[in-house]
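To the team - cobalamin complex, inputs and output below.
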Amino acid sequence: MSSVASLRIIDPMQRHYRVVMAKPGLDGHDRGARVISRALREAGFEVIYTGLHQTPEQIVDTVLEEDADAVGLSVLSGAHLSLMPRVVDLLRASDAGDVVVFGGGIIPDADIPVLESAGVGKIFTPGAPLAGITGWLEAALDDRETARAT
Ligand code: B12
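Output:
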């Protein structure tokens, strides 16, 4: 049995979460989005990958149509400071502000607190361990589930 599987027996996800993995903007770097999609699937999440060149509006439409719990944004173009907060704002305007937004890509350290204060839950840059990403998302969504129940 893998260590991930044995961990899940001890501490299962509260439910089977749905995650939209999205590529906002014009950059064509899709390896990171695919790697993270696969890691999330292997960790037990249901993942819907949007493909390249999505507008924030298209991404939010997909999140709403899929009734997703979280949206992961992968940006390597340098446009993260406009694209990521725009997705957060559109979700809030659609009464879906409790969808967990997280992201990654080529993001300078100085921009990470700016994104987090704009409502992006967490940013993961190259070299971040995959188990750290899946574990963070599971904990964030389990916390959200617990808060909803109380
Ligand atoms: C491979 C590559 C390409 C390939 C892309 C192939 C593909 N299908 O993806 C090709 C050759 C096409 C390419 C083209 C270009 N590239 Co390029 N490319 C790279 C390179 C060398 C590696 C990127 C990569 O695949 N890494 C492997 C993946 C697995 O890592 P990753 O995407 O970073 O993802 C990890 C994390 O960031 C994070 N992550 C990423 N997304 C997400 C999302 C979520 C939700 C989470 C949780 C985590 C997460 O987790 C992943 C795993 O650790 C980088 C340099 C670098 N060292 O990163 C430059 C780089 C990204 N490219 C760059 C540039 C400038 C370009 C071009 C504009 C060059 C040009 N003048 O033509 C074009 C643009 C093409 C386009 N249409 O967008 C720049 C971007 C600069 C910037 N943003 O400030 C970089 C940083 C090179 C550099 N040092 O200048 N590129």
